[in-house]
Design brief:
Blueprint: H1 2-30, H2 43-54, H3 58-83, H4 89-111, H5 116-146
């Protein structure tokens, strides 16, 4: 009987730990700044990655550094501008629009440094990154939408009222 009690205690502690981890993870997710994780990437990391993928010369790498640094500073200012605003659809669309304009401005500057082939490869890399980001967002949305639906939560019902077991 002691062994069964120990198992129940361990099981309960594990469930509490999992619940705590989920709550902390959701809290961190909800408080993250606007924009994708890659938006604030260190310019040095970007240059190193592009050196490998686009076979940049040392001169090109040096010419890209101030472009990426300026882009990062402008993006940080944009984030700060929107940080304390609501996350309404209008606010998110305005942020996204300004971020895309900044990206376009940066891409135009990159086009002056990269060869045509490198620019084409860079644009393909951006497309892949966007697709990966969208895919990750869709998976996250599906997981969030599916949470709580089994017990009726999320449909205006208290836990235990789903599937015909509640008040009538």
């Amino acid at each position: 009987m002691t062994e069964t009690l120990e198992r129940q205690i361990v099981k309960t502690l594990m469930m509490i730990s999992i619940a705590f981890a989920l709550i902390m993870g959701w809290s961190a997710y909800a408080q993250r700044p606007m924009g994708s994780p890659q938006d604030g990437r260190n310019p040095e990391e970007q240059i190193e990655r592009l050196k490998e993928r686009l076979d940049l010369s040392d001169q090109q790498a040096e010419e890209l550094r101030p472009i990426f640094e300026e882009s990062r500073e402008k993006l940080q200012a944009l984030r700060e501008q929107y940080q304390d605003q609501s996350r309404s659809q209008e606010t998110m669309e305005a942020f996204r629009s300004e971020r895309e304009a900044l990206q376009e401005e940066t891409n135009q500057k990159l086009a002056t440094v990269l060869s045509d082939g490198q620019l084409k490869d860079f644009q393909e890399m951006q497309g892949e990154a966007r697709a990966n980001l969208r895919q990750g967002q869709r998976q996250g949305e599906g997981q969030r939408q599916g949470q709580g639906q089994r017990s009726g939560q999320g449909r205006g019902q208290r836990p235990g009222q789903g599937q015909g077991r509640g008040r009538r």
